[in-house]
Amino acid sequence: MALAFCKSPIPFLAYRIIHSIYYVKLIYVFALIAINWGLRCSDILALTVGSVIAGIGKRIQIADRIVVVERKTGHERHIEIQDKMKDALYEHIKKRVKKDGDLRMSDPLILSQKKSAGKERKALSRQHASSVINTAAKRIGIRGSVGSHGLRKTFVYQAWKRDIGVDVLQKILGHSSVEITHRYACIPQAHELEAYRKINFGLESAIKRARKGNGFRGEMH
């Protein structure tokens, strides 16, 4: 599957990858966050339970908005949590409480399946997350190495498909230029060429005048 400006077909197949890894619940939530928030792997694994919870009472309350400071760039991301994502996070945390018996705000949101020697609960490893995603990709026929970054790119591509401007995406991602975001979004060249087919400002009247023999006299001095 060849795509202009993109070395990987992941942005077009990531939803199938997510369904392919549904059976691994921890990675499933990881993948949902990556594809819906566009965060890097390191930033997802740095999230704690307290990062997404607004309060604890009779029912766990998921926050409406959170702020994430990217570890790589220091860029501040303001993220609104939509209702379906709230439901996914609620179920994820609820099952954690049922399994572990308690809830610590400092606990990693995505826990490692390996138990640590002490009381500290560790986050899922980057290697494990990438391994599961890569396996899921191969299961649906994607060749080559696939990691979590493909899901982040999917967030950008799908946002662009939903008419979010590249300049807005540039600001969200903290890119230094629109050109970088454009390449990052894997926008097919066919979509770029479509702009030339849709824009025809002034052409119709100009052609009519030319056919009448009026040309463009009087318009230029």
Q: Which structural category fits the helices and strands?
A: mainly alpha
Shape: elongated
Give the strand content: 5-15%
How are strands sequenced across the largest beta sheet? Answer: 1-2
User: What is the number of beta strands?
Assistant: 4
Radius of gyration: 23 Å
Q: Count the DSSP helices.
A: 11
Mean pLDDT figure: 78
| Fourth CATH level, the homologous superfamily of the domain at 10-148 | Intergrase catalytic core
Through-space gap between termini: 52 Å
Question: Could you walk me through the main structural features you see in this protein, from its secondary elements to its overall organization?
Answer:
- The protein is mainly alpha-helical.
- It is 51% helix and 8% strand.
- The chain contains 11 helices and 4 strands.
- It has helices at 10-20, 25-37, 41-45, 49-52, 83-100, 126-139, 149-161, 166-173, 178-184, 189-198, 203-211, and strands spanning 53-56, 60-62, 65-69, 76-80.
- The protein has a two-stranded antiparallel sheet with strand order 1-2.
- Helix 2 packs antiparallel against helix 5 and helix 2 packs across helix 7.
- The longest helix has 18 residues, at 83-100.
List its salient traits:
single chain; 221 residues; mainly alpha; hpI Integrase, Chain A; two-stranded antiparallel ribbon; 4 strands
Quick description:
With 221 residues, the protein is mainly α. It is 51% helix and 8% strand.
Chain-wise SSE layout:
Elements: H1 10-20, H2 25-37, H3 41-45, H4 49-52, E1 53-56, E2 60-62, E3 65-69, E4 76-80, H5 83-100, H6 126-139, H7 149-161, H8 166-173, H9 178-184, H10 189-198, H11 203-211
Antiparallel strand pairs: 1-2, 3-4
Helix pairs in contact: 1-6, 1-7, 2-5, 2-7, 8-9
